[in-house]
Write a sequence for this structure.
């Protein structure tokens, strides 16, 4: 709906008045509370965190679109994802929510911060608009100083983001790509936007081949073992097969 002249928030909410950008379950708070009480990971998982019961109630303020995406995530074991936004030229990575709940901005890295920074950098450095030496600032933030990537919470806190939910509930690594200063580009500009992002999208998808891959098998039967938990020393975030 609308255009930039009518305000950036126009069209952000659904017909029911729900902001989808903040509509996923807040799993961060439960994890951090458990960490503060030394319950992770022996009594409280640091991965595949269950959805709170209140969020599943029929009268919970959860959009049908959000529920559909969560069902989709639970049905398929995605490992890499990106969502596309407009309004800036930067790639953000989790966590999107600040650990100090009353702070609007705070560096809040995940246990896999190195991987997320790499994924964001892969996209940002191959994006023609972000990498251009002639690019102008969209607003007042100069993201070129940080290589056009930023920890989401260190930019502005977003409780209930899909990125944080993906990481904590499904083990999928997800980033947000702010791919244009203009939230409402004209149709004639779309071919150029595609060229700006084509190589970035391809390189980003290729990153699924990084890291350890394989099948966890039973030593006697050689059958694959479902839901095996893999822990890596020094990384406080396990992965489930």
């Amino acid at each position: 709906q609308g255009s930039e002249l009518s305000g950036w928030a126009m069209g952000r909410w659904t017909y029911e008045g729900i902001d989808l950008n903040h509509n996923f379950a807040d799993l961060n708070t439960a994890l951090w509370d458990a960490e503060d009480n030394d319950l992770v990971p022996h009594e409280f998982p640091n991965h595949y965190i269950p959805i709170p019961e209140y969020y599943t109630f029929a009268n919970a303020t959860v959009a049908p679109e959000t529920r559909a995406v969560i069902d989709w995530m639970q049905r398929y074991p995605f490992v890499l994802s990106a969502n596309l936004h407009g309004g800036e030229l930067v790639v953000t990575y989790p966590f999107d929510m600040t650990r100090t709940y009353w702070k609007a901005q705070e560096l809040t890295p995940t246990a896999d911060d190195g991987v997320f920074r790499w994924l964001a950098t892969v996209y940002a450095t191959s994006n023609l608009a972000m990498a251009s030496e002639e690019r102008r600032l969209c607003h007042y933030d100069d993201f070129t100083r940080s290589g056009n990537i930023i920890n989401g919470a260190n930019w502005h806190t977003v409780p209930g983001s899909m990125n944080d939910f993906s990481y904590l509930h499904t083990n999928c690594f997800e980033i947000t790509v702010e791919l244009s200063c203009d939230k409402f580009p004209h149709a004639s500009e779309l071919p150029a936007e595609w060229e700006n992002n084509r190589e970035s999208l391809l390189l980003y998808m290729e990153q699924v081949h990084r890291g350890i891959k394989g099948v966890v098998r039973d030593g006697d039967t050689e059958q694959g073992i479902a839901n095996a938990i893999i822990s890596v020393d020094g990384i406080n975030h396990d992965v489930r097969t």
